[in-house]
Automatic annotation (TrEMBL):
Protein name: Monosaccharide ABC transporter ATP-binding protein, CUT2 family (TC 3.A.1.2.-)
GO molecular function, one term: ATP hydrolysis activity
Chain segments annotated as coiled-coil in the UniProt record: none
InterPro entries given in the database record: AAA+_ATPase, ABC_carbohydrate_import_ATPase, ABC_transporter-like_ATP-bd, P-loop_NTPase
Entries under SMART domains matching the protein: AAA (SM00382)
Domain ABC transporter: 7-244
Length: 274
């Protein structure tokens, strides 16, 4: 594992009107590691990912890629750096085959016609490089694939373009036990191939099975980012639901005295952790 994160965020803020969704967020993803991004609904996971992928501009903060400051103003900027996102809906076309889906919008051409042999070869090499053996034919329509196979195609599509950071949004949602195991093996293989992988998941079993680090968001704040081996399942749940677990997470503020002028009770302080 490289000591320098591939992607590092410092002090990221994002608001929509009067609502501050992200507050001073720090985050790092290392090459060769799976970093699980966890948090309750509304914690800010989707907003953070959309800032990383260039869909939303951050209001403030720094982005560093390979230790160098970068600016990400659009999805094109993110793609140029090698950042790819596989969203939960997968963005695949059922009426197209696997090769057509993997090259959709980025087709190879030979003159004015599509270079089908080259695209098929590149698709085959990408799937082989990920040790994918569950797909019978590259010319299968996506409509004929299982949920696990669809997820595999979406991930292969993301890594086809010399990606260096892959973000996976709930890749095992709605999958059976066997398909989930296949997808998690693929996620692990991405990291073993040297990519930085960010896994967004609500499934703690999946998180502990495949991740090297866990980053917990709570109400728009990054309350902890620790090695998976240094934290327990119950601690992660506490971080997600309360923002604190033992010495991890938000610092509890002492109750203020109710005597004297200008006194304020802890109940009037929304930042206090109980």
């Amino acid at each position: 594992m490289s000591a320098t994160p591939l992607l590092e965020l410092r002090g990221i803020d994002k608001s929509f009107g009067p609502v501050q969704v992200l507050r001073d967020v720090a985050f790092a993803a290392h090459p060769g590691e799976v970093t699980a991004l966890v948090g309750d609904n509304g914690a800010g996971k989707s907003t953070l990912v959309k800032c990383i992928s260039g869909i939303y501009p951050a209001d403030s903060g720094e982005f560093l890629f390979d230790g160098r400051p970068v600016t990400i103003n659009s999805p094109r900027d993110a793609s140029a750096l090698g950042i790819e996102v596989v969203y939960q809906d997968l963005a695949l076309c059922d009426n197209l085959d696997i090769v057509q889906n993997m090259f959709l919008g980025r087709e190879k051409r030979s003159g004015i016609v599509l270079d089908e042999p080259t695209m098929e070869q590149m698709a085959a090499e990408t799937l082989a490089g990920l040790s994918v053996r569950t797909v019978k034919s590259l010319r299968q329509h996506v409509s004929s694939l299982s949920g696990g196979q669809r997820q595999t195609v979406a991930i292969a599509k993301a890594v086809l373009w010399n990606s260096r950071l892959v973000i996976l949004d709930e890749p095992t949602a709605a999958l059976g036990v066997a398909q989930t195991a296949q997808v998690l093996e693929l996620v692990r293989r991405l990291a073993d191939n040297g990519l930085a992988v960010v896994l967004i998941s609500h499934n703690m079993n999946d998180v502990f099975a495949v991740s090297d680090r866990i980053a917990a968001l709570y109400l728009g704040q990054m309350v902890a980012q620790v090695k998976t081996t240094d934290i327990t399942h119950s601690q992660v749940v506490e971080l997600i639901t309360a923002g604190r677990s033992g010495n991890l997470g938000l610092v509890a503020e002492p109750a203020l005295s109710t005597t004297g002028s200008g006194a304020e009770s802890a109940d009037t302080n929304p930042g206090a952790v109980r």
